[in-house]
Design brief:
Layout (H helix, E strand, L loop, with lengths): L1 H21 L7 H8 L9 H16 L26 H8 L2
């Protein structure tokens, strides 16, 4: 039973580490750093995040854009339940140029 508890704790710690790195809801995450540095300067990316970004790009290409990993980068598009409408197409088109 002790081994199971140790494994569960290790799994939770790893999930927290990955969340701290990859969540757009953590202000100090690498994902947020990429967002704010986009087009301005390079940001070092941990191998785990690079792998996730590469897979996301592949899935976007395979789905012909039906899966869009960049959708969270748009201003005005919220996934936290505080807004109930999507941004206007013109707003998205303008931000897509960045």
């Amino acid at each position: 039973m002790a081994a199971l508890k140790l494994a569960a704790n290790a799994a939770m710690q790893e999930m927290d580490r990955l969340s701290q790195m990859m969540s757009r809801f953590h202000p100090t995450s690498v994902v947020n750093a990429l967002h704010y540095a986009s087009g301005l300067r390079p940001i070092p990316v941990p191998p785990e995040l690079f792998s996730v970004l590469r897979m996301a790009k592949e899935r976007a290409q395979q789905s012909h854009g039906a899966f869009d990993p960049t959708v969270g980068a748009y201003q005005g598009w919220h996934f936290d339940g505080t807004h109930n409408q999507s941004p206007a197409s013109s707003e998205l088109a303008q931000q897509r140029q960045l």
